[in-house]
Amino acid sequence: MTRTLNEILWPVSISHAAELSGISAKMVRHYESLGLLPRVARTDSGYRQYSEADVHTLRFIKRSRDLGFSMAEIAELVTLWQNRRRTSASVKRIAQKHVTELAQRIEAMQAMQRSLQQLLHHCHGDERPECPILDDLASQSTRSLPVG
Question: What are the domain boundaries of the chain?
Answer without folding.
Answer: 1-69, 99-142
